[in-house]
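Okay, any thoughts on this one?
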Amino acid sequence: MQLLVPTNWDPDLITALSRLDADVQIYGVLPTSMIGSGGSGPDGVHMLEEQAEEYIAQAHATGLTFDYVLNAPSMGNMEWEESTHQELLEHLDWIDSVGVDSVTVTIPYLVELIKNQFPRLKVRLSTIAHVNTVARAKLFEALGVDSITLDVNVNRDFAVLKAIREAVTCELTILTNNLCLYQCPYEYYHHDSLGHASQSCGAVNGRYVDYCVLRCTLDRLADVAQTIRCRWVRPEDLHVYEDIGIDMFKTSGRALSTERIVKAAAAYASRHHDGNLYDILNVVVPKAGFVGFGLPNARNSGIEPPRFHIDNRALDGFLDFFTKQDCLSGCDRCDYCRQVASRVVRFNEGKVDEYRGTLRAALDTLSSSKMFKLRAGSRKQER
C-alpha cells in the first residue's frame, strides 16, 4: 500500500512513520513559501530552509520520500511579474537541490513550468484542482502531471472513479480522512484565502481570519448528518478503492499533533481501526488566524470544541449503499446519512449548543465589521 502522510515538522514523526507496514511518503511545506499552500499548517512552527533540508535528509535516511506542497490555487498573478517570477524559479531550484522527490501543485501553469525546467521532480496535482470528471483528468494528464489527487467530493461516486481510472494512466490518489462538508460552498474561498495568507511575497502579510472554518463548523454542528456526508473513507474500506485501481491513499492534517498524525496513518496502514472514527479524522478547530483580531474562539473563550464519537465498527457495510446511489443529484431526496448518524454518532448536546453559540458570536464579529471596530452603518451616516 502507498500512503501519503502529512508532516508537522516534528523529527519524532519520521521515526514513527518509518515503522509502519506500508510504502509511506510524507508531505509538507514551510509556514510561508513563494507559492503558498491551500491548507493550514501547525501553529508555532518557525522552520528555516536549512532546517527543512536537514528534515528531508532525515526522512530519506529512514527510507521515506518527501513531497513538497505548493498547492495554493492562485499566486495573484505574481508569476507574471519578472522579479517575482525569478524568485519563483529560485524557490523551485532550492526544492530541487535539497532532494525533494515530488511537488504538489494546483496551478496548471506550474505543472508545465516544473516539467519543463525541473524534470527530475515528480508533479502531483492537488485535490484543490477539483478533478472530478474524466475530461478534467485527461486534460491535466496531458499537461504532464504524474499523479492526480482526486476531488474529495467524488470519494463515494464510484461510477466517476472507475471512469477516470479507465481514462488515464497516471497515478490516482484519494484523500481519506477529510472532514470538510460534502460539496462545501466555502471550499474555493477557503483554499484561496489560505493560499494568499501563506505566500511569503504576497500583499496580505499573513493577515487572515478563518471565516470558512467558523462557518463550516457551525453548519456541521447544526446538522449531525453532515458528519456522515463528509467524504471520509474508513481504513476497512480501502480495498474497494484498490479494486477500482486507486494507487495511493492520502491522509490530511498538517496542523495536527504528531500523535494524531501517526494514529491516522497507522489505522490506514493496517486497514483497521477500533473505536472512535473521529479520532483519525482531520478535525480542524476554528482559530482567529495567523494574525489575531481578538475573535472569540476555543482558545480565548475557554470553551473547548465538542468531541464526537463515531462508532467505526457500526459502520461495517456502510459504503455499500453508495455503489447504487447518485448523491450529486439525489442527496435532497435521500435520508441515508441522517439515519446512519442517528445510529452511530454520539455527542454531548449541551456542549455542542454552547460551542455553536461561540461560533455564532465569532461570525457576528465578522459580518458586523466589529472586528475592525466599525459601527454598522457608520459610513452611510458620515455621507
DSSP finds 16 helices and ten strands in the chain. Residues 2-216+231-292 form a domain with the TIM Barrel fold (CATH 3.20.20.70).
